[in-house]
User: What shape does this take?
Amino acid sequence: MRGSRDTKPHQTFLKTAASAFQELSDNEGLNAKSRARYRKLATTATALRKSLNRATPTDAPAETDIGDTSDLPKALLKELNSAGSGAQDFEKRILSVMTDLGGEASLDQILVALYRKHQMVTKRRVLQNKLWRLVRKNRLQTVKDDRGVFRLKERDERGKRTP
Assistant: This one.
């Protein structure tokens, strides 16, 4: 992950090397060719140090951290996952409500039950998509001949869901 490696020792080394090479390039006791070589080494060490600073910012937040959200608009904040309201939590709430409703419920019944039990107002389309995802995960099944009605998948004695 970018930015996670500690670059301070490398930066310190390059700073020291650049300083030492610069000192050598100023030494009048050396011939011109040697001084030019040390000057070039000092310039290269400085450029490498600057490149290292750009490539791995030490004060940047981690890639998974979104940092302070106080400057974000309310519309965007509503779209972010806050603690305790992630996808798995939403699934657990749906399954909990389905259990309370006797294991079988329509989309409307689930919407109302989510509000009554968890004070959660969910868009119909979002819930519908999540229910179909739970069907694909083999946690729910549809009721034949009843459009928009879902049923909890039963488990057999080994804990596996029955088809």
Q: What stands out?
A: Strands lie at 104-106, 140-142, 149-152. The radius of gyration is 31 Å.
